[in-house]
Design a protein that fits this description.
heterodimer, A: Rossmann fold, 3 domains, 18 helices, 43% helix, globular, disordered N terminus, B: 356 residues, alpha/beta, Rossmann fold, six-stranded mixed beta sheet, two-stranded antiparallel sheet, 14 helices, disordered C terminus, Cytoplasmic tRNA 2-thiolation protein 2 (chain A), tRNA binding (chain A), nucleotidyltransferase activity (chain A), cytoplasm (chain A), tRNA processing (chain A)
Chain lengths: 490, 356
């Protein structure tokens, strides 16, 4: 029922229990001296425990420790709401760190996100989320390396880690000097995260085109200019970013792509998708695993709030690099400010949004594809029993939007056959979801055909596969009863 | 009024894009097309006719009650429905059904509007009041519980009141003026508040088919702005003030957001509804089991219907009963009821004695 109280417990206004008791890798020892720990500073009528970490009750909570310094605004305000200590800052620094890392580790282990034979490419934007993702995956790798060095039989290999930064300077104007400085800072960050050594790739968006860079840059510029809608242009850039990541991962032998997408970002995405009519495909984008792509994409920071990640960066002085003002416009900007407003009014709003969306049924590609080696995966497979998602063999395969790769609702897809392998304007439209049709594809037919000619090969191929897929599937169903290879029976 | 901003003086020679004969007089909020008034009336009415036909909302010979508050949505609904009923021979018997919540200075004024509608559209009117049904007016309730959670009481009571009124009128169906903006707001609200069960039901155009009175929303795809525009140009008589007790409702957040969204991309409202319809929600999600209220017989998934629970709270001076995570409320009530069996409580009043 409607209410606007921050503490209301009616209906769906759940206040998130932030005392998530995750497997604590560093359990605090019981207080050695009982008397000292009972000395609690009284603070003007408030709960006398407020100065101490609510978890270990030994060290000072971060809110108390920083209350006098100017760093408090950074720690307690972080990326979230206004005044007042957040739940996170009622931990001490160590407990906070272990709690946050615990969330990361739980996500990785219970969803089998990273296996020992993997080579993981971390998508690094320079911002706090991807910085923490990089840090945590590095720590995990170091731990695996230590175990490897200490083990006698060296049976479990250590997974590899690489870092990729997508250079979007051809689409977003960034002063060249600022840009090269930022890249150097990132290179330094990555080189400091060794051993084990991590390769740093700087990939430009235009690299998705196989032709030489100049031609690619112009093609990219033309492609983006052909999109009239501001939000459509922004979203197209995001889709191209993923294509660039896929390309560099494939080229360099990576087996997984790791994104630092956090709860807050997902909450915004939920609303963005709802508002753009993408309710059907929403569930595909917000799970831990997204295996629609050639290289599966994993989101281990899915349960961490942006505010927590900001606090983590300032707590451990993790260097973040701002390449360009992440300036959203149009609908995406409206939603970002809306979620910020809601989060200020109720600090658990982002989590509630993600939890609601988490109840939507995922797709069959939202679990890790079965590897060849069955033995190692059994435990995690048991844990994935929640959604019994095998692709239903009695239905035609899912088809995907050419541009955003979102699964298309069967009733929205008009079945069509390619006439002589030439795409008509209608064919081009039909291969895209309704949202992309509206906000990305040009309305005018000749502009549409021109736009199609500018698309990178991966998007063109994706559409053609979808179109032929159903035909091929139908044929496979009846293959054993066909007497000839051609349709007319000759 | 809002509609005035949208009517811009077209440059000389700008014709309506639909008929190409008359001068364009307005920009259509849903599509931004520049059209004349006559064409606007036509597309507005015919789109609603299309929704009614495509979704098979009515059958010939049905008695249909229109939930009439005197506001723009229900006034336009009454006007358009009686017009389409005539024009396309739906064969419906239409009635106006109004609920008097007992809000001085708001409801008594809007009820006057409905009484005028009764005469203007020639539709028989029935008014049901909270006072008669429950023994409480909203004024009295707000005096007791304040301005938080009062919308909960009113909403629950109104739903039942409409059903009871519909039964008294012996109608087969109830129509309400919920428009596209309302439904989009509800979709957003349910996402924000974690209500996955409601999220799966809130985009249905017809609800309650398995209950006492099915209800439908012919305005599901009609923009609020267009309803205002229609009412303005047709000079329909309606009452346009916000309920005086509602300023704090959480829905306000969603409403503001949708207004901003509409400015950037008008079709987003319909896109939200489409997303709501397309959400993949497992049908095995626990849906409430349907039974009947022990106290009054109304449809309920718990021992007592929500209205009875709330009423009990009011009568016993426990305004929080039924608000919040009411794990124990129903159990507590039945326990206490058993204890107080023999005692006749003068204060406590039944929900109503109608058998369902």
């Amino acid at each position: 029922m409607a209410c606007n109280s921050a503490t209301c417990q009616s209906g769906g206004c759940y206040r998130e229990d932030n005392g998530d008791r995750v497997d604590d890798p560093f359990p605090q020892p019981p207080p050695a001296v009982a008397t000292e720990s009972t000395q609690q500073p009284l603070s003007n009528g408030k709960n006398s425990d407020s100065a101490f970490c609510i978890k270990c009750k030994l060290k000072e909570s971060m809110a108390a420790a920083f209350s006098s310094s100017s760093a408090s605004a950074q720690v307690t305000g972080g990326g979230g709401g206004g005044g007042g200590a957040s739940d996170s800052s009622r931990f001490c620094g160590d407990c906070f760190r272990s709690n946050l890392y615990g969330k990361f580790r739980l996500a990785v282990t219970s969803n089998a996100l990273i296996s020992p034979s993997d080579n993981v490419l971390v998508a690094f934007s320079g911002g706090p989320s991807s910085r923490v993702a990089l840090q945590f995956v590095h720590e995990m790798q170091m731990k695996a390396q230590k175990n490897f060095d200490a083990s006698r039989d060296r049976s479990l290999p250590v997974f590899g880690v690489g870092v990729a930064f997508i250079d979007e300077s051809s689409s977003i104007s960034i002063p060249a000097e600022k840009f090269s400085q930022a890249v150097e800072e990132m290179r330094l960050v990555v080189s400091n995260l060794a051993p084990p050594v991590k390769e740093f790739h700087v990939v430009s968006t235009e690299s998705i085109y196989s032709s030489d860079s100049n031609n690619g840059r112009n093609r990219l510029k033309d492609l983006l200019n052909a999109v009239a809608d501001v939000t459509g242009k922004e979203d197209l850039l995001v889709h191209l970013r993923m294509l660039a990541l896929q390309k560099v991962a494939l080229k360099n032998g990576y087996t997984k792509i790791l994104l630092g997408t956090c709860t807050s970002r997902i909450a915004c995405h939920v609303l963005e998708a709802t508002v753009k009519g993408q309710g059907y495909s929403l569930a595909a984008d917000i799970q831990y695993v997204d295996a629609r792509w050639e290289i599966p994409v994993i989101l281990p920071l899915r349960d961490c709030l942006a505010q927590e990640l900001n606090i983590m960066c300032s707590l451990d002085s993790l260097k973040t690099v701002e390449v360009h003002n992440d300036h959203h416009s149009g609908i995406n900007a409206l939603i970002t400010s809306f979620v910020k407003l809601l989060q200020e009014e109720n600090p658990s709003r982002e989590s509630t949004i993600v939890r609601t969306a988490g109840k939507l049924t995922p797709f069959h590609f939202n679990r890790m594809p079965e590897p060849d080696d069955c033995n190692m995966q059994l435990a995690s497979q048991r844990r994935q029993k929640k959604y019994n998602l095998k692709p239903n063999e009695s239905l035609p395969p899912e088809s995907f939007c050419r541009i955003c790769n979102s699964p298309l609702k069967k009733s929205d897809v008009k079945s069509y056959k390619l006439e002589n392998q030439i795409m008509s304007a209608e064919d081009i439209s039909n291969g895209c979801c309704t949202s992309c049709q509206f906000q990305i594809l040009p309305k005018d037919i000749s502009l549409l055909e021109h736009f199609y000619s500018l698309l990178p090969q991966q998007m063109v191929a994706r559409g053609e596969y979808s179109c032929l897929g159903e035909d091929r599937w139908l044929r496979e169903q009846i293959q054993d009863c066909l007497l000839s290879d051609t349709e007319d029976g000759t | 009024m809002e509609a005035e901003e949208v009517v811009a003086k077209p440059p000389k020679g700008r014709f309506c894009t639909i008929c190409n004969q008359r001068r364009a007089a307005l920009k259509r909020p849903k599509t931004l097309e520049q059209i004349c008034r006559e064409c606007f009336y036509a597309v507005f009415e015919e789109e609603i006719h299309g929704v009614i036909v495509d979704n098979q909302l009515f059958k010939p010979g049905e008695r249909v009650a229109i939930g009439a508050s005197g506001g723009k949505d229900s006034t336009v609904l009454a006007y358009v429905l009686s017009e389409l009923n005539r024009r396309h021979n739906y064969g419906l018997d239409l009635f106006l059904l109004s609920v008097d919540e007992g809000i001085t200075g708001y409801r008594d004024d809007s009820l006057e509007t409905v009484k005028r509608n009764e005469i203007q559209y020639g539709l028989p009117l029935k008014v049901v009041s909270y006072k008669d049904l429950y023994g409480w007016t909203m004024d009295e309730i707000v005096k007791l519980i304040g301005l938080k959670n009062n919308c909960t009481f009113c909403g629950v009571f109104r739903r039942q009141a409409l059903d009871r009124g519909a039964t008294l009128l012996k109608v087969d169906k109830l129509v309400t003026g919920h428009n596209a903006d309302d439904i989009a707001e509800t979709v957003l609200l349910n996402i924000l508040r974690g209500d996955i069960a409601r999220l799966s039901r809130c985009t249905s155009i017809t609800t309650g088919e398995d209950g006492p009175i099915p209800r439908c929303k012919p305005f599901k795809y009609t923009y609020e702005k267009e309803i205002v525009m229609y009412a303005y140009f047709k000079r329909l008589d309606y009452f346009s003030t916000e309920c005086i007790y509602s300023p704090n409702a959480y829905r306000g957040f969603a409403r503001e957001f949708i207004k901003d969204l509409e400015r950037i991309r008008p079709r987003a409202i319909l896109d939200i509804i489409k997303s709501g319809e397309d959400f993949r929600i497992s049908t095995s999600t626990k849906m409430p089991e349907q039974g009947n209220c022990e106290r009054c017989g109304y449809i309920s998934s718990q021992k007592w219907c929500k209205a009875c629970v709330l009423l009990e709270g009011l009568n016993r001076g426990l305004p929080k009963l039924g608000i919040g995570r009411s794990r124990g409320a129903n159990n507590e009530l039945s326990k206490n009821a058993k204890e107080a069996k023999g005692i006749d409580s003068i204060q406590s009043k039944q929900c109503g004695t109608l058998d369902f």
